[in-house]
Amino acid sequence: QVQLIESGGGLVQAGGSLRLSCAASARTFSGYAMGWFRQAPGKEREFVAAITNTFYADYADSVKGRFTISRDNAKNTVYLQMNSLKAEDTAVYYCNTIPLGPWGAGTQVTVSS
Fold first, then answer.
1. How buried is 13 (Cβ within 10 angstroms: 0-12 exposed, 13-18 middle, 19+ buried)?
2. Is 70:82 a contact under the CB 8 Å cutoff?
3. CA–CA separation, 1 vs 20, rounded Å?
4. 73, 77, 113 from 33: Cα distances, Å
5. pLDDT one-digit tens code per residue, 46-65
6. In what order do the strands lie in the sheet with 107-112?
7. How far, in Å, CA of 103 to CA of 109, rounded?
8. Which of 19, 50, 55, 67 could form a disulfide with 63 if both were Cys (CB 3.0 to 4.6 A apart)?
């Protein structure tokens, strides 16, 4: 199983930026598709972005044009660059393999309006 550690969250004003990181333990990280997900208070966890092992990226409509997912296979890390943040982006952000494996602890992102 892949162990995942998310980091980079914090408090930011609306319109600001954050860069999330997800470090994975798997030796075969480069073979996995990876995704970012988020869960806001009182809501179900939802898909945010994904990147395949061939670097194809896909995004939820709500973040297209504002968020960018990337990966560095040499560092076993996937990133989520978040720009033009909105209050509705406030959530705990998680990364995971695709297909899904065990969840990590996530990292809190809070956007103040």
1. exposed
2. no
3. 22
4. 11, 12, 33
5. 999 999 999 999 999 999 99
6. 10-13, 107-112, 91-98, 33-39, 46-51, 57-59
7. 17
8. 67
∠ CA 78-79-83, rounded to 5°: 160
Cα 112 versus chain centre, distance: 19
Amino acid 111: pLDDT: 98
What is the percent of the chain with per-residue pLDDT over 90, rounded to a whole number? 90
**C-alpha span between 34 and 68 (Å, rounded):** 13
* Separation of alpha carbons 67 and 19, rounded Å: 9
For the chain, the straight-line distance linking the first and the last C-alpha, in angstroms and rounded, comes to: 39
